[in-house]
Design a protein that fits this description.
With about 120 residues, the protein is mainly β. It is built from no helices and eleven strands.
Length: about 120
């Protein structure tokens, strides 16, 4: 059974930075693609960024140039470096194993971790 633990969220001023971490256990981490997703109140969960086993990356248009996804296979951890944060980035952030297609990326597991909350202040 896969266990996903997200961390690193918090309160940050607009324009600031945060780095999120997701530790995954119970899965063969290195051969899979992983993604970060977010869900703001009243909105659907959306893909933020994905990274393949070969370190190819995908980003939502809204975060391109500001966010960077990376992975450390030795630690079974995927990261999301967020910079130049905007109010619209405020959400609960989650990670999930991901299937990366040419035009989209989709989460694999139906069960999500507890997420980590990002709040952006003025």
């Amino acid at each position: 059974q896969v266990h996903l633990v997200e961390s690193g969220g918090g309160l940050v001023q607009a324009g600031g930075s945060l780095r999120l971490s997701c530790a995954a256990s119970g899965s063969v981490f290195s051969i899979n693609a992983w993604g970060w997703y977010r869900q703001a109140p009243g909105k659907q969960r959306e893909l933020v960024a994905a990274i393949t086993s070969g370190d190819s990356t995908r980003y939502a248009d809204s975060v391109k140039g500001r966010f960077a996804i990376s992975r450390d296979n030795a630690k079974n951890t995927v990261y999301l470096q967020m910079s130049s944060l905007k109010h619209e980035d405020a959400a609960d952030y989650y990670c999930n194993k991901t299937v990366v297609y040419s035009s989209t990326s989709l989460p694999v597991y139906a069960t999500w971790g507890q997420g980590t909350q990002v709040t952006v202040s003025s």
